[in-house]
Design the sequence.
């Protein structure tokens, strides 16, 4: 027990059942740390004070904290074990080859640079070309593309006399007419420098289709089609879709123009603009060569698109020509109708049709329903019905959060009442067929979660269902057996194409830290740049307004949190 001098005058001795801590001496009782005001015991030196009482945990709280600490330790051990399990290499499994073992070094763990598999080609000797006249000092050459001009206008702008233009057209009489010229068609004319008389002329539609007229010994201009030794050959390739789609297909050994034939094969299902980063394309194509060099891709024979998400089913397309069926078909033997418009919410039912004479369910007056409503839960993905350019992203009054897309055929589609937008979507951005634009919601004037899908051309709304959304043709019965056999053979060939590796991550150059500006002198005013005003479509559009006519929809006005605080376009 403490000495009697350290106990309070009224302190009782410890007894059974009492808490010893309640009988500890205090400064007020004159303990050993009593200050100058204590009645008994030593005093502290001047300027010092007593320490506060120490923390105290009961046995129950001690057990609780001990249990929490034990659970935290166990969780950390489990996390370490999970990190130690190697990730399955799906490419190695599909291709049938074992995954390479890691060496443990930094260089071995870094993916190898993608090898550009450029095909070795041997040029063949060809016919005489007009470019050989460039060495003749008495001849002047003029060349250009047709663009949107007529044949006569294009040559006239290059200084070819009208009489010589008609002479060229006469030379190709019965061989080719020039009333319909392609925008990318190129012509080259060789004229006598002094008289402007045409000595030779070439018209190039492609590397494999070239027309030429040349003066003979008698001065007669005669037209012919050049023999470019056209040949066809199958191409088997695969590429990993990265940030740059052009670099991606070039790393697979493919030539420019391959995206055009891929879009033809995928028409009505998706387009190359909607390819996700991390996805994989395997294909068998037919290429055409001229004089031994690449000219163009004629068609896709078979194609597989593997989405970046392994849980999504790959899409396979096959070129097939039967007794009645012709074109590109999927695994089910289905072919989209011409046009290739997709439903913005696949599988969702139509809950309200386009109706110019609709009686408004809330306002009780005649108001047109300028769209088609698809019923779906909040958060359901919404996709672009066709490829195009984004016109608007932002709140639009009764339409709530709205996205509009302008398509190449002049049709503009709208996607209203969205709960949020697709990450990264912005005005001016190109989107592909079936590319994510947002998620179903109930913002704006809406009675519940749904998508209000509208279509407009020349400023007038029309029934979007007339676009034959997700319309498909079924394989005719007479061709089903032949298609099944062709599909099986092409599946084996696609499966044999090794899956490509992803490209290496680009090495970021080291950037020196900027030197901080010197502090402003006392009394001077620092110049502060104001932040740009942020509009619904980005920082450069503070005055942007929604498209004209947006907001014509049904239901009561519900201004939910998504409208009061519009979500950012991530």
Sequence:
């Amino acid at each position: 027990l403490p000495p009697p001098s350290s106990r309070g005058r009224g302190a009782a001795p410890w007894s059974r059942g009492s808490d010893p801590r309640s009988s500890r001496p205090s400064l007020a009782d004159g303990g050993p740390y009593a200050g100058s005001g204590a009645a008994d015991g030593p005093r502290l030196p001047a300027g010092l004070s007593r320490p506060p009482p120490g923390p105290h945990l009961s046995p129950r709280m001690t057990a609780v904290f001990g249990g929490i600490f034990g659970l935290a330790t166990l969780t950390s051990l489990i996390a370490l074990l999970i990190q130690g399990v190697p990730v399955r290499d799906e490419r190695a499994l599909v291709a049938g080859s074992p995954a390479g073992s890691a060496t443990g070094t930094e260089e071995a763990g870094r993916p190898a640079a993608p090898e550009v598999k450029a095909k070795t080609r041997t040029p063949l000797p060809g016919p005489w070309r007009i470019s050989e006249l460039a060495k003749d000092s008495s001849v002047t050459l003029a060349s250009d593309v047709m663009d949107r001009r007529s044949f006569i206008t294009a040559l006239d702008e290059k200084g070819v006399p009208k009489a010589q233009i008609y002479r060229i057209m006469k030379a190709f009489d019965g061989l080719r007419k020039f009333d319909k010229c392609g925008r990318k068609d190129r012509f080259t004319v060789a004229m006598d420098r002094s008289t402007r008389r045409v000595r030779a002329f070439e018209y190039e539609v492609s590397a494999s289709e070239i027309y030429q007229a040349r003066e003979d010994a008698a001065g007669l201009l005669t037209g012919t089609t050049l023999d470019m030794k056209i040949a066809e050959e199958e191409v088997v390739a695969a590429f990993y879709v990265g940030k740059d789609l052009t670099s991606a297909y070039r790393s697979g050994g493919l030539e420019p123009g391959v995206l055009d034939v891929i879009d033809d094969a995928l028409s009505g299902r998706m387009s190359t603009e909607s390819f996700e980063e991390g996805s994989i394309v395997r294909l068998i194509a037919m290429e055409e060569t001229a004089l031994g060099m690449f000219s163009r891709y004629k068609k896709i024979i078979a194609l597989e698109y593997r989405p970046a998400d392994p849980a999504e089913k790959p899409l396979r397309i096959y070129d097939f020509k039967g007794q009645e069926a012709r074109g590109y078909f999927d695994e089910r033997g289905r072919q989209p109708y011409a046009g290739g418009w997709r439903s913005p919410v696949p599988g969702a039912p139509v809950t309200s049709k386009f109706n110019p004479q609709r009686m408004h369910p809330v306002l009780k007056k005649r108001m047109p329903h300028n769209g088609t409503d698809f019923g779906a839960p909040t958060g359901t993905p919404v996709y672009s019905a066709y490829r195009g350019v984004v016109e608007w992203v932002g709140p639009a009054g009764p339409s709530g959060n709205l996205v509009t897309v302008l398509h190449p055929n002049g049709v503009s589609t709208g996607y209203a009442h969205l709960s949020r937008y697709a990450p990264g979507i912005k005005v001016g951005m190109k989107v592909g067929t079936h590319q994510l634009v947002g998620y179903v919601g109930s913002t704006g004037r809406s009675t519940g979660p749904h998508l209000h899908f509208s279509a407009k051309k020349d400023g007038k709304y029309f029934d979007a269902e007339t676009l034959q959304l997700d319309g498909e043709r079924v394989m005719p019965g007479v061709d089903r057996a032949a298609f099944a056999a062709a599909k099986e053979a092409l599946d084996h060939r696609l499966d044999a194409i090794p899956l490509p590796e992803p490209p290496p991550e680009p090495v970021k150059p080291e950037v020196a830290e900027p030197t901080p500006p010197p502090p402003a002198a006392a009394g001077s005013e620092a110049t502060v740049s104001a932040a740009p005003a942020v509009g619904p479509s980005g920082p450069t559009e503070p005055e942007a307004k929604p498209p004209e006519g947006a907001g014509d929809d049904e239901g009561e006005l519900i201004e939910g949190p998504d409208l009061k605080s519009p979500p950012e376009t991530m």
Observations:
- Residues 59-83 form the longest helix (25 residues).
- Confidence is low (pLDDT under 50) at residues 4-40, 87-113, 522-542, 554-570.
